Amino acid sequence: MPYVFVSTQIRLESGPTNVGDEYSDPGLMIYLGARKTTMLGNNFSEYHVDEPPRLVLDKLEKIGFRVLTMTGVGQTLVWCLHKETE
């Protein structure tokens, strides 16, 4: 999967950080040390790490991902990253 979304709440810049959904690459989620959770009332799962977004972005850069764009949506910060396929 060449695209990844990373997000966090504005007041939680120190973590936790959302790093994927239930369809994310399991190998990448293991590399990031993410845990899969389902919030009460949701019918979908998300992957989270306790680290701040900066550390997650650093880890993703080390394996070839690059930030395409970043934005704020309400109280959420979102980064979109891409990795060139071989």
Q: Roughly what percent helix?
A: 10-25%
Order of helices and strands: EEHEEHEE
Number of strands: 6
Low-pLDDT ranges? none
Radius of gyration using CA atoms only: 12 Å
Q: Number of helical segments? A: 2
Name the average pLDDT.
Answer: 89
Strand ordering within the main sheet: 1-6-5
Q: Give the biggest beta sheet.
A: 3 strands, antiparallel
> How much strand?
35-45%
**Shape by Cα distribution:** globular
Counting helices, strands and paired strands, the structural category is: alpha+beta
Q: Span from first to last CA?
A: 12 Å
What's the short story on this structure?
This protein has about 90 residues and is α+β, with helices and mostly antiparallel strands. About 20% of the residues lie in helices and about 40% in strands.
Summarize the topology:
Blueprint lengths: L2 E7 L7 E5 L4 H7 L2 E3 L8 E4 L3 H10 L3 E8 L2 E7 L4
Antiparallel strand pairs: 1-6, 2-4, 3-4, 5-6
Task: Explain what the structure shows.
- It is a single chain.
- The protein is an alpha+beta fold and 86 residues long.
- 20% of the residues lie in helices and 40% in strands.
- It contains two helices and six strands, in the order ββαββαββ.
- A three-stranded antiparallel beta sheet has the order 1-6-5, with helices on one face.
- The longest helix is centred in the last third of the chain and has 10 residues, at 53-62.
Give a quick set of tags describing it:
alpha+beta, globular, 86 residues, 3-stranded antiparallel beta sheet
